[in-house]
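B., you asked whether I could sanity-check this one before it goes into the benchmark set. Here's the sequence:
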Amino acid sequence: MVDNSLEKGSKHLEYTDAMDTESIKKELDILLEEKLDRLSETADTDSFEEELKRKAEELKAAKEAHYREKGGRLRSVQQKLLHEKDLDEKLKAGKESDEHVRVYAAKAALNKSAERKVVSEGWIHRTWRLFKTLAETRKEIKGKFWYTQERRDAVYAAAFQDCWGPAINAVEEMGATAWNFFTEAMDDLWDLILILADFVIAIAWYLGSFLYYVWDLLWDVRYWVEMHRKHILSAFAGCVGVAVVSIVLITSMTAYEYSYHGKYLGVVKSKDDVLRTIDALGDKLSKATGANVSMDVEKDMAFKKIIGFGQDVESDEDILDTLTYMQDLQVEAFAINVDGVETVILESEAVAKGILTDIQNDFAGAAVGVEYTEIRYEQDVTITPVTCALGRLWNRGTAKEFLEGNETKEIPGKVSIHSVETATYSEAVPFDVVYESTASLYADETMVKTPGIEGRDVVVATIERVNGEEVSRVIISTTRVADPVSEVQYKGTKPIPVVKGTGQFMYPLRSYTISSYYGMRWGRMHTGIDLAAPNGQKIYAADGGTVTFAGWKNSYGYIVIIDHGGLYTTYYAHCSQLLVSAGQNVVQGQNIALVGSTGYSTGPHCHFEIRYNDSPQNPLNYL
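And here's what the prediction gave me:
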């Protein structure tokens, strides 16, 4: 809607030279009231704002032109300055037209809204700006009666659109874009399905046509075969016969020469015969040599096909013997080198390392109280892979003995284990013997009164060994942990009688229990009596005589036999210790041995026999 009243007023101002401020104010008030009345009747906010902006510019131009003309009519500079001062005072005092104030305020608001820069904002900032804009708008339109409800709603809607419009539009655009993408994708998918369906249908049609053609051809062939059955069977039988005869003839004429590393070995009927024999060869040679032997057929063996009659082919046993007794059968092995010299050759690296470990353990193995500070070979010992003839492989036990050496002969290239150890061990300290004279024993007899006790030292030493043999010992410390206790013995002073039998026998023990008598026992003859006593108790000669035997005798264990003259002898068996020797003369009651349980015995006792002319007698008839 265009209103010409303001335009008319501005033109009137332009051509009125004598019009003063009061007349302009009155004229503007009248025109503004008319304009506001008409604007309050319409909801066209945009037209009003544009119209207001345009009229404000016209009024401003008219005002400037008016004051320029008025100032031009002033003759002096002082009058011009007073005019400008008076104008400023009037504006400050509010004496200028209220219409000017309202016009300029509306213009400033419109310019502020138009000049607002659009920047990238987030949801929080947009929401804060919305609340701020609503508050400012509410404050601006408060008390302005010409703002109808429709205009208020339009202003608020514009604020919402300005703050949240881009985000709402973006969400709507995203939804629309997603839906368009989905619908287009579904259309493309449906087109693809239709294309695949057409492709499958075409393939099925061509395949069906081909199968129908083949089926029809098979029926034609079957009909032809039915018509020529006899001729076909005859031709087929003839071909089979010719093929069989040819195969048999060629097979009987075909053989293979086999060789090992270029060395001719013989002729075989089939390669499989050699391969089968080689599989069994490893086990046979391993059993014979103690080594693990295997052959690489592809590398070691070569076959040459020959055709002819009367071939002298070898059997499996012949092949096995040929390969077994080959002197140059090559095998992969490992050598133990001593100071760079190849010493022994073994079938695997694990066996070679095992032998060296066993040698080291033999001479420097783990021991209680021993801590090794150094274990090394005195030679440079290495293990290297080699290829050698089968006959050069060593047996593990022989190789170990060769490397260790022995006491009977010198073997060049043997290894020596040098070890240095710190040993902590206990060492016995011998006790002294103190004698006391007694007339109850013969002059050459002694008897322990109080047994001695050895002392004990704990020794820490550094010991250096070569192959287990000590070559040096340095004592680091010696600690006495127990002092020795002297032994007290009785020494006899009783004169020794003439050595001869008295003809009367005494019991060989001073304290005893008869555990078995003379006679049949357990199905056999028991030729003496058993006198049970604690182990180590003294055994005495039953009568004087000469010792004819003192030593080990089969089931008797350690035994003493004394000849008393007059064809009488006595036996003292199962001793733990012998105190006399053969050829020694003894007297009746002399300590000759100690009770034990050696030989065939179930407990400590003395088996005592009396024999006449070497015939066992019942001892109880003589004692």
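One thing to flag: The longest strand covers residues 469-482. Otherwise nothing jumped out at me.
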